[in-house]
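Subgroup meeting minutes
Present: P.N., E.W., G.H.
Scribe: E.W.

1. P.N. recapped why we're keeping a running log of single-chain structure predictions: easier to compare across weeks, and new members can see raw inputs and outputs side by side.
2. G.H. added today's entry (184 aa).
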Amino acid sequence: MKIIAINGSPQPNGTTVTLLERAMKGARSRGAETKRVDLYRLNYKGCVSCFYCKRKDKPHGTCAVRDDLSPILTELKEADALLLGTPIYFDNITSGTVAFLERFLFSNYIWRGDSRLSPARSYTFPPSCTARVGSAPHCLSHTSSAGSVSDLLGIAANAAPTCAFGHKIRTAPSGSPASPPQWL
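Output recorded in log:
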């Protein structure tokens, strides 16, 4: 299994990188091949809406823009899984992540001819697969119901969840509305 982790944070050693590294470590321990891509080290731009990727005389999803992101987009088509990590700035994902998603997602959608797009490949996410970066600048919070993510992060099902730095985190009981993490 090949897993590519996309780091959408401009901070090279921040909590987003820590989360991605922990997830990749868990995946490697189960035999996966992993690679991390730091978007802010690349020179690239978002989609320019040229529709080259929709041409019928070219391989589907081929982006005409040639920059540092081009080989990454090609690699992602061969990957079995994608881990996407980004901090939230001004209530949104980072601008680098937006530009990446424009190029990755739009180029892989198929134009149906009726003013709608459909995904060229089906992407499914387990409903229990959740992890989020907490509001504290130095901690990650993982809910104990985070099945797949907990497994990748190496969190035992019966252990109290902790952040990447070992701080214990109280979480809402399974099935209750999500609440902000409380740091112990």
